[in-house]
Amino acid sequence: MRKRKWQLPKMKKTLPTRQKKMIETMKAEIVAFLPGEEPELKKKLKCTYPSAHLICATFEEELDYLVHIKFEAVQNTQDKVFTITKITEEDREFRRLRQKRYTEKKQFEKLGFRNFWKEIIASGKPIVGHNFLQDTMFMMHTHETDLPPTYAEFKNQLHSTFNTIYDTKAIATFINSDSEQEPFPNTGLGSIYTAIRKSFDRSPRTIEEKFVLPPGFYNYNDASVGELSKAHKGQVRCVHDGHCFGTF
């Protein structure tokens, strides 16, 4: 098997120039450390706290998360003792995934809702909501154009913007009218979602297997919402609405 040659790319140009030689020395020691059998390497470096944090983050990312780097400050000095540790393949994959989710989160933060609205329209895909006539009126007025004076005109305006619209409350009402026994006595979203889960005997795990959460929304499953309260209520309703529509 061909032995891999370890090389580090140049450090990002955000560290003070006076630390350049020390950083280059640290690079060389890490390069020599990686193919060896020692599990840990310690290196002392004189730098500020921001520079120390930057060194840790930059080295880990540029080394594709082959090592974990942390530091401790030496009391009454500017010295920082860095500890470089090799990590397992499982831990490496976890760090990659964590960085991916962090990057996705930052991308979502940069994307303004107006751009998101334009992307929805450009996609030509159906939109799904629950009892959301007034919501569509608000969104059209805020992001598209002024509202017309009559419902018929608004309906034409809305369908010229979105080809297909589904309302899960209207669907549940239609199912009730077309059935001998009403499967949804209460057509509120929470009641519909609960009824569907009971009818199909779906646990939080089976729901995750059938309905994949989008990037950045990994905590929006029933377990996280119920036990950890990590999800925003309005966005959880969107997830539930999608689950109901997918089941319909």
DSSP, total strands: 5
What is the fold named in CATH at topology level of the largest domain? Nucleotidyltransferase, domain 5
Task: Characterize the main sheet.
Answer: 3 strands, antiparallel
Q: State the end-to-end CA separation.
A: 54 Å
Number of helices: 11
Shape: elongated
The CATH C-level name of the largest domain is Alpha Beta
Overall SS class: mainly alpha
Overall tally of domains: 2
Quote the average pLDDT.
79
Order of neighbouring strands in the sheet with most strands: 1-3-2
Show unreliable segments.
8-13
Order of helices and strands: HEHEEHHEHHEHHHHH
CATH H-level superfamily title of the largest domain? Ribonuclease H-like superfamily/Ribonuclease H
Q: Strand fraction band?
A: 5-15%
CATH architecture of the largest domain: 2-Layer Sandwich
Give your account of this protein's structure.
The chain folds into two domains: 17-108, Ribosomal Protein S8, Chain: A, domain 1, CATH 3.30.1370.50; 115-246, Nucleotidyltransferase, domain 5, CATH 3.30.420. Helix 8 (189-200) packs across helix 11. Mean pLDDT is 79; it is low at 8-13. By secondary structure, the chain is mostly helical. 54% of the residues lie in helices and 11% in strands. The chain has a three-stranded antiparallel sheet with strand order 1-3-2, covered by helices on one side. A two-stranded parallel sheet has the order 4-5.
